[in-house]
């Protein structure tokens, strides 16, 4: 536990320091004054992009963490702002409570099912190598190359590799909940706004109810947490924009910056780009689209696409129409098959007993009855959670006479909900689409066409009850496992996790994963060639 706490504080400090750097160098606006948690989340995003850029030139080994820590100490020491942690006593007590909850979640979690499959292998490759051209040929899932795995590779110390995976997940869980609570609990020009109170309450209630173990985080939930941060952040600053915000380009950059990160974590969260699109429409002027800071975003997006091309030969894997057929390492055929099989799997084709082939089955809602039989219980569970969250919001509020205004903000939320329904119908796996269920709760309240005022006592009481509900589930797991249910014991004592399979070809070392005790992936580079050119390892047809 001491090791967990130490690494937690080191990583959190690095994230905050990088967030302060992002604010100073990229944002640098007196109108957009980020608080501690906004700086930290922006720092987490910034750290992800720093790692993405570094991996073009260097492996993401432990030395980079210590270097980042040293530079962060120097930067904060000479910074005028220091820590922007001006919260009242009540907020600080709850922040401590959320911190302890995240520690319990870290200690009480096993590992994601995909960790031994391909997450661990990808992270280990990134720890030991800069980008491998054609990496996707080693394992057909490496082409996803999620920035969250790159961030895992950067923010882990190799001797505590697996434990540190949970620490990063715990940090984003802590930052998200603490941010939403303090926004509600602090007296500011935002805290009395009904819409902000509605959004933050719905989000935090849902997270505390459903996010009770970090094992399930994988790549989905971190992206969802930051997606929700984006919605709240955009709505919060929309009220400043109504007062003629001069730094439109800075705000637009922040929104694009967050959106690029979200889709780099999980591509099915692409709907988040609706937020900057609505902002452009609402602004009725487009000059800021070509400002210097936005051009920097375009450069950053270009680096993201180049990284994708190096790994899979595709701009956006696994969409085969984005693959470059002329590249010797392109994954066009692999991507096409993977996308088809993934859609079939999410639509429960493996449980289908009829005569339709895969292509016929996944179209025209032919899949619906089979999917319904296998998934309706879980789907209903999420719907009931959304309804419970809505009821908890009502319990923490009292009705005002005024009605909610239907403006760009409310209509954007409703449109996001509609878009996410469409995405869900394409890939109906409940765990992928928490955003849809969260937006469902938001939309119900918005469509009630009523405004509410928070009852702070009841809001805090509900939060306390949900925190202890979440904590109790983790402690129960820890206690029933006789305190062996933690990452260290899983790896060192139980042997639950298999380390990535290491293979060598000349000076080239690469790693693959396991499924059910069997190594998977292209272990011996059969069917493919290997060469080294200009400092890059290249796997090609």
Query: How many E strands?
Result: 8
The strands making up the biggest β-sheet line up spatially as 1-2
Low-confidence sequence ranges:
none
Give helix % range. Answer: 55-70%
Q: What integer value in Å does the Rg equal?
A: 23 Å
Strand content: 5-15%
Query: SSE order in H/E notation?
Result: HHHHHHHHHHHHHHHEHHEHHEEEEEE
Oligomeric status: single chain
- DSSP summary: helix tally: 19
Shape: globular
Class inferred from helices and paired strands: mainly alpha
Main sheet?
Answer: 2 strands, antiparallel
Keywords summarizing the entry:
541 residues; mainly alpha; two-stranded antiparallel ribbon; 19 helices; 61% helix
Task: Give a description of the structure.
The protein contains 19 helices and eight strands. By secondary structure, the protein is mainly alpha-helical. It has a domain at 2-312 and 493-540. A two-stranded antiparallel sheet has the order 1-2. Strand 5 (514-515) and strand 6 (518-519) form a beta hairpin. Helix 7 runs antiparallel to helix 8 (194-210), helix 7 (161-185) runs parallel beside helix 9 (220-241) and helix 8 (194-210) packs parallel to helix 18 (456-480). The model has no long low-confidence stretch (mean pLDDT 88).
Tell me briefly what this model is.
The chain has 19 helices and eight strands.
């Amino acid at each position: 536990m001491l090791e967990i706490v130490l690494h937690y504080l080191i990583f959190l400090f690095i994230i905050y320091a990088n967030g302060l750097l992002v604010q100073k160098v990229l944002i640098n606006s007196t109108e957009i004054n980020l608080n501690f948690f906004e700086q930290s989340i922006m720092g987490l995003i910034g750290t992800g992009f720093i790692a993405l850029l570094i991996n073009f030139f260097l492996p993401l080994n432990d030395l980079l963490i210590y270097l980042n820590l040293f530079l962060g100490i120097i930067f904060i020491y000479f910074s005028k702002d220091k820590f922007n942690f001006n919260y009242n006593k009540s907020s600080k007590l709850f922040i401590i409570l959320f911190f302890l909850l995240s520690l319990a979640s870290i200690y009480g979690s096993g590992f994601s099912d995909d960790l031994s499959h391909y997450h661990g292998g990808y992270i280990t490759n990134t720890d030991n190598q800069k980008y491998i051209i054609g990496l996707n040929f080693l394992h057909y899932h490496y082409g996803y190359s999620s920035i969250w795995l790159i961030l895992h590779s950067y923010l882990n110390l190799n001797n505590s590799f697996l434990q540190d995976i949970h620490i990063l997940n715990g940090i984003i869980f802590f930052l998200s909940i603490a941010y939403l609570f303090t926004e509600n609990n602090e007296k500011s020009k935002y805290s009395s706004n009904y819409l902000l109170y509605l959004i933050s309450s719905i989000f935090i209630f849902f997270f505390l109810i459903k996010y009770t173990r970090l094992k399930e985080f994988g790549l989905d939930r971190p992206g969802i947490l930051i997606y929700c941060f984006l919605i709240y952040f955009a709505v919060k600053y929309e009220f400043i924009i109504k007062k003629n915000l001069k730094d439109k380009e800075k705000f637009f950059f922040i929104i694009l910056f967050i959106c690029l990160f979200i889709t780099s974590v999980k591509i099915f969260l692409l709907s988040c780009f609706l937020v900057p699109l609505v902002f452009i429409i609402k602004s009725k002027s487009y000059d800021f689209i070509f400002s210097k800071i936005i051009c920097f975003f375009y450069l950053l997006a270009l680096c993201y696409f180049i990284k994708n091309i190096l790994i899979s030969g595709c701009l956006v894997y696994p969409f085969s129409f984005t693959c470059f057929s002329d590249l010797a390492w392109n994954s066009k055929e692999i991507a096409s098959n993977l996308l088809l099989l993934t859609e079939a799997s999410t639509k429960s084709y493996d449980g289908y007993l009829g005569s339709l082939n895969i292509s016929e089955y996944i179209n025209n809602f032919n899949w619906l009855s089979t999917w319904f039989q296998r998934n309706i219980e879980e789907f209903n569970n999420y719907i009931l959670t959304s309804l419970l969250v809505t009821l908890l919001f009502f319990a923490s509020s009292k009705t005002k006479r005024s009605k909610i205004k239907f403006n760009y903000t409310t209509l954007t939320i409703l449109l996001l909900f509609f878009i996410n329904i469409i995405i869900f119908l394409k890939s109906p796996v409940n765990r992928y689409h928490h955003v849809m269920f969260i937006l469902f709760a938001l939309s119900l309240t918005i469509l009630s066409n009523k405004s509410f005022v928070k009852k702070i006592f009841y809001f805090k009481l509900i939060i306390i009850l949900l925190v202890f509900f979440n904590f109790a589930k983790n402690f129960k797991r820890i206690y029933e496992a006789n305190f062996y249910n933690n990452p260290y014991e899983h790896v060192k004592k139980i042997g639950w996790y298999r380390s990535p399979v290491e293979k060598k070809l000349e000076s080239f070392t690469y790693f693959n994963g396991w499924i059910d005790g069997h190594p998977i992936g292209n272990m011996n580079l059969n069917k493919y060639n290997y060469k080294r050119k200009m400092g890059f390892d290249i796997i090609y047809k």
